[in-house]
Structure formats: structure tokens, C-alpha cells
Amino acid sequence: MIVLPLSHILIFSLVLFAIGVYGALVRRNIIGILISIELMLNAANINLIAFSKYTSLSPETGQIFALFVIAIAATAAAVGLAIVLALYRVRKTVQADEVNLLKW
Amino acid sequence: MPILEIAAKFGTYAVMAVILIFALGVVTFRNLFHCALCLAAALIGTAVIYVVLQAEYLAAIQILLYVGAVVTLIIFAIMLTEHLAGKTARQNNSQSLLAIVGLLGFVTLLATLILKTPWPVTPTALQAKNSVMGLGKALMGTYVFPFEVISIILIAALIGTVVIAKKDAPEEPL
User: What is the CATH number of the domain that holds B2?
Assistant: First the structure.
């Protein structure tokens, strides 16, 4: 087995998460925001699996929660993209800053 | 075999670097289709990291579910709304600089915390074998309630997605 220091994996997933947050903050296209959210969930999954490998005494726990995260991420993507399609049909736009009907 | 081990270590670091480069591509490319392809590449790289961490089942699920299903879904959504993302349309809002500065602070803070924390890395956990069989037993034993909740969420999301995305049918007189 390859033994990397745990902190290196954590810093790698931290940087991945930060890139995802950047995309979610600055993108105008709603689909772009959804893609960035997938990146963030992915970084969280890497953390879960790394912790379950390095520290936990029951190695299944982290993997099972990563499995749950993947399932929830899939439903989030499906529902989010359905909302985007419905929005596009009604308003003819997918830019987040043009959808401001409910904004004060 | 120390040479093989060192090579594997550097290979893992190389995979991490490639994932980060693709992730930067995901958030910076103008064409959303290229972004989705970069996302697929980054997700496959993550599956490689899972294999390195001895979570082979998760790696398979990652490729099947993320690269197979979610990326396909995203590409379909992009194709159905594509023509808006023309060359002239602005892709970013005006808060990039603020976001970069804030995130640099965030990363520095958390990286310092990560490097200063004495992680309780136990040799017993490093030695532990995790098999697909153990995973299945835990899923059907200890975690059976969240598993069932997930199935309810999946069916609710399935129905909700169809209801939201389908065209409104005109009212038919009875």
C-alpha cells in the first residue's frame, strides 16, 4: 500500500473544494454552478474516505457515508437540472443574475 | 522494493496535480461543454485516488454513477440550453477578485490548521482490510435505516424531476 501523509490528502481536497467554491461564486450560468457543486461534493468524499482509511477502526463507516453522499449528489444534480430546464422554458435564460424576480 | 514505492508515491502526487488542473479548467473554461468534459476527467482522477486509498468499490461506483450518469445528465442539460452561451456572453460575474482573495484566506487558514493538528493515525486502521463484503454487511446491518431513507429520497427525486421537467399539458375538458 502507498502511505501518503494524511495531511497531504487533506490539503489536496481542501484546494479542490476551494476551486469548487470559486466556480460556484463567480459563474453566471446555473449549470456551471451545479458543476462546481459536484466538484465540492467530490472533495468532501475524498476527505471521508481518507479519514476512514487512516483513523477509523471500522473502515466501512467512511466509505458508506461517501456512498450516501454520491447518491444525494446524483439526486441533487437531477433535480437541479430539471429546475434549470423548466426555468429555461419559462424565462428563456440560464444566467443566475437574470433570474431576479423574487429579489428585493 | 523502495523504488517501486517511490514511483507509486510520485504517481499519486501527479494524479492529484492533474485533478487540480482539470478542476481549474472546470471553473475557468468559457464553453460549458468543455467544462463538463473536464469535470468527467477530474472525477475519473478522483476514482484513481479512491483506488490508492483502497476503496475499490467506491471507485467503481464513482465511475458508474458520476462519470456515467451525472456527467451525461449535465451534457444533456448543456445541449438543451446551449445557444445562450455564445462567445460574447459574459460567463463570470464581477466578484472574481473578491472570491479569490477570500478563498486564499480560507485555504491558508485551513491548511495551517490541517498541518498543526496531530491526526490520530492508527496503525491498526492502516492495516485493516476493507472488503466489499464488509461494506455490504455494514450497509444491511448498522446502516440499514439511512439506506432505506436514501431509497425514499431517490424515488421522491425521480418523481419530482419528471414532474418539474415535463411540459405543461394543456387542460383537457372532461
Answer: 1.20.120.1200
